[in-house]
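Suppose you are handed a protein chain with no further information: no name, no annotation, nothing but its sequence. What can you learn? This example shows the usual starting point.
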Amino acid sequence: MKDNVTDNVTEIECCGAHHVHANLVHQIEDGMPSDEVMQSLADFYKVFGDLTRIKILCVLYQNELCVCDLAEVTGMTQSAISHQLRVLKQMKLVKNRRDGKTVYYSLADAHIQSILNQGMEHIAE
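A reasonable first move is to predict its three-dimensional structure. Written in structure tokens, the prediction is:
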């Protein structure tokens, strides 16, 4: 049985003759972000590659919650939630606010909601 990756590779067509469109190539090269910026973007998207973090983001998409509530909703330990929240906070995907002894977490901004929405729309197609 073939996998989808193998099937897709055989469908890719190549140019019949090698010819570089130099003007277009240089224009694109000039507009490309630096390797440092692209690495930051790659790291940003890596965070979305973890099911636990996606669950937390989807929960926080609905409402801000404390670690105890997040653990209850996701069926995970508070320790596991705290670890993932640290990662999400480092990548500026979530923010927190303190109310007395309780710390509440929420999505960092509307950009994160938009990223989640676009991802859900894409996989629903």
